[in-house]
Fold this protein.
Amino acid sequence: MRRSTFVLCAAALIELAAGAAWADEWSVESNVTAKATYTDNLDLLPNVTNPAEIYTISPSARFSNRTEAHELGAELRVDVNRYPGKPQLNTVGYALNGLGRWLDERNTYGLTLTAVRDTTLESELSTTGVVQKRAQRTLVGASPYWWYSLSERLQAKLDYRYSQVFYEPGSGLIDYITQGAKAGLQQQLSERASIGASVSFGYFWTSASNTGVETVSANADYDATERLKLSAELGAQRTRTETRQQFLVCPLTGFIDDPICAFFGVDLEQVTATQRTDDHAWVGRLLATYLLEAGSFNFAVIRDLNPTGNGLLVRTDHLVLGYKKTLQERLSLNADYTALYSVYLGGAYNRVYYQKAALGMRWQADPYLALGTGYARTEQHNSAQSGTAHANEIFVNLVYTWPKVSVSR
């Protein structure tokens, strides 16, 4: 099923591209990255030292096609990861993203397709802060949308999203499905400001639990100056989680695994118990971007819901800081900090704390070749475990970018 879903996504992208052969402008961009990484705690576990070297080759390509009436695009990156001395960890991952957008007088139709294969200690960790057993993870998703202009300044929006995640067989992790629909209105107040409101419904399903999500929110975007851009959203959210557990019950007494049944030769009966948990909370985001003379500063505070491989959702608070600075014509610096605080829904009140600080340098040797290096420090603590996990990581990379190819007709 995994392969068939991925093939369907790829076929849809090819179909989109083939149907637009008459387009005005095509462009192709491609590069390859070679990266060497050393970490002193590969699986980010407490009270453990597990050093490892990772060598990665990542070719990537981006295709785009634009006219006044539509926009099509696709991007593919393949990651070939090798672990010297640990060949059982060698993996090949990928990230495929495709988009299509079509415009007419009042309507905007769009579709985004996604297929990602990585490990649980990559995208899932950076989103939730939750450390799972290292395993391959495959995500496929589709997000169609429709926007309709009610007037020059007022727009109605309808979005739907669907995603499915599969874990490596034998990992002990639970596959899941998420889907949701969102409807809202967006009002343009001026060239610099807009406000909106929306209502959304979501559903998270696994073989062991399911969660329904209802959200009502309001949002605002404001370009305070040419350099400062602000965006905010605030809302109320209600969730209902049902978790299912199976027990072997003695029909004679009604107790779980009662030895009386074994004494009388009576078979135990399998019983499924369902626990329902309701939760209410606020959700939202506050984003700020400030452009400097030769760089930028980004700030984000976000509260959202994210799925995990243990069959439950977590509500995650994010604090993200980013700073970029061009030191010289070819030399640049970037510093990033991320802090996450996650709480499980559904009665499992584990709390997870995660933070990562990173510093990197990049030197543009010529228009096509760039060299980079950096250091990152990561910490993670789960209230259900003793001790705090620490990891130090250093890397060097080389990126070669081929000249962009553009065709207009």
